[in-house]
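Handout, section 4.2: multi-component inputs.
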Amino acid sequence: MAVGILLITHEGIGPALIAVATGLLRQLPLRVEAFEVPLGGDPDALLPQASAALRRVDGGFGVLVLTDLYGATPSNLAAKLARLGTPVRRVSALSLPMLLRVMNYADLDLDELPAVAAAGARNGVIQDDA
Amino acid sequence: MLERELLIPNRLGLHARATARLVQLLSGFRCNATLTAKGREVNAKSIMGVMLLAAGQGTPVLLRVDGVDEAEAAAAVVALFERCFDEDS
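Output:
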């Protein structure tokens, strides 16, 4: 029961987060890939490539798609992906705490992971006045 | 329940990589685990939780484990601290 993780982000963000998470955890327990959307990218034109990435990370238990900014083209592309048939759940405001927390709950199924991801991002915000 | 008093041994303290080691180690055990430092108790199986301690080198921390495999978990954590989280210093 391993969910796939697909990061759909603006350029430079997804691969950097995967690189750091891999450096911290040594080996990521879930299949992860980053799909970068250039500024001004056309979601319809990018859909086939994004769909191929989605299929690469899907092990048959669905894919958690994490996007960096809700309402931006990467998250609009993610919304299109979610209508292609593969079970997809989407969470936006991707951050390192979110990605690490998802990896820390790698045995959960697709329906449970969105809340885990959201809590990871929320709990990662610390107003550090100490 | 078991408790172990430990000192953060490594130069960089409980930074992200060391925290990830600790959390990954504890995730292999079924017992509950908490760390207490500077008056704050956090879930020792949560990366953000442990990093919230912002515990530097020499900080005293209290490990508390509670569950069927608590003895093994405590021993494993003590060993990880003794190995300086597998870092150089």
